[in-house]
Amino acid sequence: MLTLRHGVRVLGAADLPAFLELTAQDPVANVFAEYRARTTNLEPRWLGGEVWGRFDGGDLVAAAHVGANLVPVQAGPGDVEAFADRALGRSRSVSTIVGPHTAVEPLWELLRERWAPPREIRWHQPHLVLTGDVQVEPDPLVRRTTRADLDLLYPACVAMYTEEVGVSPEAGGGGALYRARVMQLVSRGWSFARFDSGRLVFKAEVACTSPHAAQIQGVWVPPDLRGRGLATAGMAAVAAAVRADIAPAVSLYVNDWNTAARRSYERVGFEQTCLFSTVMF
Q1: Cα 279 versus chain centre, distance
Q2: Which GO terms describe its molecular function (predicted)?
């Protein structure tokens, strides 16, 4: 076992039960961390990084997923300070810090002087959850995608990512990896879309799941078709399918300035539970 500093050490497979008890304190907000833990057994070679745990009297009280994303889990002020101290002892490897605003903002304040300036900070991202029936009629033409849809689906995924993140997922030779990720979602039945006359007009994906929740990502309608209700009816179809087949709660987080998307999700029946933040490098 690694020596603890400020009660923090790297978690491993033996810590999985305790980690799942921790994520269960807020299973919807923590769905990403729980998904990563369940699919990797907290083994660093499968994580592509580490999960740090902070202990108090032998009990796991907070954690941080540290891979491509740095994601705090149930982290209060003292936990944030301990994780920041550990992070400052190594070079930055993460591309984003993302999670509840109450943890991300103080964590970044402790890291900002020594980590490179971020490309963008999105402080106010309402975290939304749907746990009941959808409140509008689902679009009957939205369906799970198949490999046969890839020629239409993949360009839409690239366009969505570029618009949302500000850089193309194909930049720096990342196209093959991103295409593999799109295909992975298709093969799992986590990719949904509507096609009209040989054109994709709506899409969304499930990013991660647990027995408690599923998180939606990549909601997109071509710019020239926006304002016609495609996203509202499409999201109703996706949310209904996810609750029927994948998880009882459906979550997502959205930029506060995206008023059209927020209105659409509200019509479907999503309700805000907390505020997320993202620091992007």
Answers
A1: 13
A2: acyltransferase activity, transferring groups other than amino-acyl groups
